[in-house]
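User: Quick sanity check before I run a bigger batch. Here is a single chain. Can you write out its predicted 3D structure?
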Amino acid sequence: MTGRIVLVRHAAIERGWSGRWVGGGTDVAADPAALATLGPRLARRAQRDPPDRVISSPLRRARETAALLRCAVEIDPRLAERHFGEWEGRSIDDCLRAVAPEFLASTERWLDLPIPGAEVPGEVAARVSEFATELASHPARLVWCVAHAGTIRLIIAAARGISLADAFQIPIPHGEPIELDVSQAARQRGDGPMEASR
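Assistant: Done. Predicted structure follows.
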C-alpha cells in the first residue's frame, strides 16, 4: 500500500490564456517564469524526501512541472483535466453569459453546468477514482502526482470523504503540494478515505 501521496497542481500557464477555458482539450505550456520560480522549491523538497514514483497528467503544463522534480516521470491520462468541449480556449465570461442563472447559484448547480461537447463530470470522477484506487494499493512509500485543479479536487474528495461540491470549494494554488497520508487512514478505517494535509 502506498504510504503518502503528494498532489501538486501544474505551474501557472502562459498569460495569454488567462480568463479562458483551459481543460483537457487545450495543451498549453506552463509559463516559463512560473516554472523558474517553482523549480528550485520543488526540487529541494524532492531531494529531501525522494519519491518512489512521480506520475503526471499527459498535458504539457503538467509534464513541464513534473520535470522540475528531476525524477523519472510516468504519464497517466486519467490525471488529465476535464475536456470542456466547445468551450475549450474560449472566454469564460463570454460562455457564461449564455448560461441560465440557476447554474451559477451554487457549487452543486455549477457542477451540472451544461457545456456542449464536454466530458461528462461523472466520467471524469470515474477515471480519477479508478486511478486513486490503483495508486492506494501500490507498494510505494511516497508518490507525487502532478495534475490539475479539477482532478486534484476529485482525489481530495475521496481522501477526505467529502462531496464533490465541498471539494470544489477548496483552493488549489499552482505548485502548492498537498500531502495525503494513505497508511494513516488504512490504520484508522481499513479501506476508508485517506487523510489530507497541506
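Residues 185-189, 192-198 have pLDDT under 50 and may be disordered.

User: Great, the batch can go ahead then.
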